[in-house]
Specification:
It is a single chain. The protein has 308 residues and is an alpha/beta fold. It has two domains: 149 residues, HUPs (Rossmann fold, 3-Layer(aba) Sandwich), CATH 3.40.50; 117 residues, Elongation Factor Tu (Ef-tu), domain 3 (Beta Barrel). It is built from ten helices and 14 strands. The protein has a six-stranded parallel β-sheet with strand order 1-4-3-2-5-6, sandwiched between helices. A six-stranded antiparallel beta barrel has the order 9-10-13-12-11-14. Helix 7 runs antiparallel to helix 8. The longest helix has 16 residues.
Length: 308
């Protein structure tokens, strides 16, 4: 996938392209339907497919107090785009200047002028430009436009909001249904209190660098992807009342991990199954016994890809 941050360095040698535009937060099944439709249209016309997205949720600029936590990081979204077969991806910096660009200017100067788009593929609720003037009806009067209807599962429309709500409630199984893959959090491994070592289950403490949604407090079975490979993991998220913790912490015990400590390295935690709520315990022996049961559950998680 050819990746460009901004359009100023894009010098398109193709004469025509199909394009789809959107925030695509988390790239759930509905987003994937839009992208696959754009890819199919481009393939049938023997043209490249260009995907245009943003480096942040537009609400971060337009309504900061209402901005939702992201479902996926930009890096995760790009990985899914690549797995779907997108040929060219342009990431625009969404700031107040871009927010003030009219729909006509966005169409004429960016989509047609820079990217040579001759057809757009958009979702049913798409709108672009200042004041969201550029909706599907407006676009259809100016350029060939294919509108993809809502994507539904069990009679409910799939949306980033529903994914976010499922994750926040700890229903990672439903989030996976909506995403087409396990929900995953990215972060960097930092030192912790090292209490896990005393219990015989040393954990990696993960610190996020973005406002990405996290599941409800509890214990989960999942996969930890590291620079050294992917490993099954028993994941704990919460304040750890059994050890008198006061700070919400995300940590994972990696099964069969043979390497040295991961301090300072980036990892991705995929949440595959919720095991239980966070609990307090009468003593450390009881806690250790429960952790052993959690690890046994986590040992049954199949290691699989986290992208589409």
């Amino acid at each position: 996938m050819l990746l460009h941050f901004g359009t100023d360095l894009v010098t398109a040698e193709w004469s025509a392209a199909d394009a789809c535009v959107g925030t695509f937060d988390g790239v759930h099944l509905g987003h994937q339907e839009v992208i696959r439709t754009a890819l199919a249209r481009a393939k049938s016309a023997e043209r490249p497919c260009v995907l245009v997205t943003f480096d942040r949720h537009p609400a971060a600029v337009l309504a900061p107090d209402k901005k939702p936590p992201s479902v996926g990081t930009l890096e995760q979204n790009l990985a899914v785009f690549r797995s779907l077969g997108v040929a060219v991806c342009v990431v625009l910096h969404f700031d107040q200047d871009l927010a003030n660009v009219s729909a006509q200017s966005f169409l004429d100067e960016i989509l047609i002028g820079r990217l040579h788009a001759v057809e757009l593929v958009v979702g049913h609720d798409f709108a672009m430009g200042k004041g969201r003037v550029g909706d599907p009806a407006w676009l259809a009067q100016r350029i060939a436009t294919t509108v993809v209807p809502p994507f539904e599962l069990d009679g409910r429309r799939v949306s980033s909001t529903e994914v976010r709500n499922s994750v926040g409630a700890g229903d990672v199984e439903n989030a996976a249904r909506l995403l087409g893959r396990a929900f995953a959090v990215q972060g960097v491994v930092v030192p912790g209190q090292k209490l896990g070592r005393e219990l015989g289950f040393p954990t990696a403490n993960i610190a996020k660098s973005t406002e990405q949604v996290t599941p409800a407090d509890g214990v989960y079975a999942g996969i930890c992807r590291t620079p050294h490979g992917a490993f099954r993991a028993a994941i704990s998220l919460g304040v750890r009342p059994a050890v008198k913790g006061t700070t919400r912490t995300l940590e994972a015990y990696l099964l069969d991990y043979p390497g040295e400590p991961l301090y300072g390295q980036a990892v991705e935690l995929a949440f595959c199954e919720r095991i239980r709520d966070e609990q307090d315990f009468a003593d450390l022996a009881s806690l250790k016994e429960q952790i052993a049961k959690d690890v046994e559950r986590a040992a049954n998680v199949p290691i699989q890809e986290t992208t589409a």
